[in-house]
Design goal:
The chain is of the alpha+beta class. It is 20% helix and 35% strand. The protein contains six helices and 14 strands.
Length: 276
């Protein structure tokens, strides 16, 4: 007979426990990252909702219906919230402890003896990066979810973990979740999925492993990315050791071209002030 299993995580945020509790529960839809696999039905997701009080529900809300993810089993504003998954055998407790710098938000998920975890423990993994990112921008961010663009791009690399880290560091792409550490190739056991998502504006860049060596003798695709300050971006790219194959040219719009760590071409252009 198997023993109960647990997972835990924590993150410190620079607000008091009451504010952290309110942001965690009332603003779930604002800090939950909308991505291709970040919901049970990502294609229909309209809202993530946490209903207040014991007996309240955590819901994925769709246009005409909703999926109950969990039922609230404890509700102590500023101190603790807990729930039992409605889809598997996972229970989660979240505590809010005051610290010198704000609040330590601690999560613990437990799987009942002999039970299954079919995604109910996901809060443990996603809360530290996603909730922390929201709390950093919360004072100035609009009170509406960040939606992904309708067009995303999959990029294949021989070393996807190294490529993701390099693209984030050199080109400045956002990583909504912690990037994988260690050597390639990625594996389900070490990372969760054998690919990594990066964000350029509101577009997804999905980094996947190649089945074999890449053939770069012919250029077939060149991603175009628009940035707020092209000169500053070029300086960052060059400072981090990327090869710039075309300096800034101004032909109706301004852009430059650089190679990534495996030799693929990227074009960066100057964004308009109104460009989302």
């Amino acid at each position: 007979m198997s023993e109960p299993r647990t997972r835990s995580s924590s993150v410190e945020v620079a607000v008091d426990p009451t504010t952290a509790f309110s942001a965690f529960t009332e603003e779930l839809d604002l800090w939950w990252v909308r991505g291709p696999i970040n919901a049970y039905d990502s294609g229909r997701l309209a809202e993530m909702r946490c209903e207040p009080g014991v007996g309240g529900r955590i819901l994925e809300v769709y246009e005409n219906d909703a999926l109950e993810l969990a039922r609230i089993s404890a509700w102590e504003p500023g101190k603790r919230v807990a729930w039992k998954s409605s889809l598997d055998d996972v229970s989660i407790q979240v505590t809010f402890e005051p610290t010198a710098g704000g609040t330590l938000v601690r999560l613990e998920a437990s799987v009942a003896e002999g039970g299954e975890d079919r995604g109910g423990s996901s809060f443990v993994a996603v809360t530290p990066p996603w909730f922390a990112a929201w709390m950093r921008r919360r004072d100035s961010a609009p009170r509406q979810p960040r939606e992904r663009a309708r067009l995303g791009l999959t990029l294949g690399y021989e070393r996807p973990a190294a490529a993701a880290r390099w693209l984030a560091d050199t080109f400045g792409f956002e990583a909504p979740s912690p990037l994988p550490e260690g050597d390639d190739p990625l594996s389900d056991d070490r990372y969760g999925f054998p690919w990594v998502e990066l964000i350029a504006g509101d577009a997804s860049l999905v980094i996947e492993p190649l089945a074999g060596p890449a053939d770069l003798s012919q250029v077939t695709h060149v991603p175009w990315v628009f940035v707020d300050d092209l000169e500053t971006h070029l300086a960052r790219t060059r400072e981090r050791g990327a090869t710039v194959v075309q300096e800034i040219e101004r032909t109706g719009f301004s852009s430059y071209v650089a190679l990534d760590l495996e030799g693929r071409r990227w074009r960066f252009g100057q964004a308009r002030p109104t460009q989302l």
